[in-house]
Amino acid sequence: MRVLVTGGSGFLGKHLMRELASRNHEAVNAVHKGPGLLDMSWTLVQIRKARPDAVIHLAAKCGGIGANRERPGEFFYENMLMGMNVIEACRERSVPKVVAVGTVCAYPKFTPVPFKEDDIWNGYPEETNAPYGLAKKMLMVMLQAYRQQYGMNGIYLIPVNLYGPGDNFDLESSHVIPALIRKFHEAMRGHRDTVDCWGTGSASREFLYVKDAARAIVDGLERYDDPDPVNIGSGSEITIRDLTKKIAAITGFDGEIVWDSSKPDGQPRRCLDVSRAWDRLSFKADTDLDDGLRNTYLWYLESLLPGDKT
Hints:
The protein is α/β, with parallel strands linked by helices. The protein has a domain at 2-161 and 209-232: NAD(P)-binding Rossmann-like Domain (Rossmann fold), CATH 3.40.50. The chain has 10 helices and 11 strands. The longest helix is centred in the first third of the chain and has 21 residues, at 72-92. Helix 2 packs across helix 4 and helix 6 packs across helix 8 (240-251). The protein has helices spanning 11-22, 40-50, 65-70, 72-92, 130-150, 176-189, 210-223, 240-251, 275-281, 289-303, and strands spanning 2-6, 26-29, 54-57, 97-101, 154-159, 161-163, 194-198, 204-209, 230-232, 237-239, 256-260. Strands 2-1-3-4-5-9 form a 6-stranded parallel β-sheet, with helices on both faces. Strands 6-8-10 form a 3-stranded mixed β-sheet. A two-stranded parallel sheet has the order 7-11.
């Protein structure tokens, strides 16, 4: 297939473009010049020029808890508008298939663990990232509505927290794994004895290696055509405290970890039921968390300037 990817130059997008190419699909990245996906006319032109057999919508305004708290309106507006423009443009151009990649933040704050797709409407999302989560969840509603009215073949995938080579390590906007890797590395480099971490460490998360996520998305593209959302994850849960210990060990930091309980933990627990992904996509994550963390840290070291590595 000829596949247009929005956000193809981003963290997940780069891995997805390579995965598509490895399976002999023709991957096309949406150009990032001009007004972008926030403009409907621009979006229509991109799809008209690409003439895709499918569109995978990855592009998003996203970040960690801090970024979500500081810019909730921006996160809601831009994610809603980009997604709506992409789906409507695909309808106007009669694109045969649309894959929208959502977020685990769409689930209610107190969802029974492991999260099942059928529970996605049973409550309000965790407050620190609810605007982002709700904006992305509305794209699932839009795809289902367009399927009902226009016959659009649109699917909705829900990945957990992603990590891996090429991640965003900016402490102002990064997610937990790259933020911790950078904090511990800089503490080692600066010969500091302590590292401050947000929250209590008691919250839990599930993490998926980015290459596994890319593989799951292409599996969905090739094998899945139903309206029901599908969780994409590893099926393994870890507390932030235990995750922090793992990253400290990988980076060689043996000092004190100081927890700042004045900062939010976010959602208390996150772990997905991934049985539907296996049943309908034949997808199962391959990468062990310890291996994935080591690979991510090695990539981070290789990407640093020579003076920052010591």
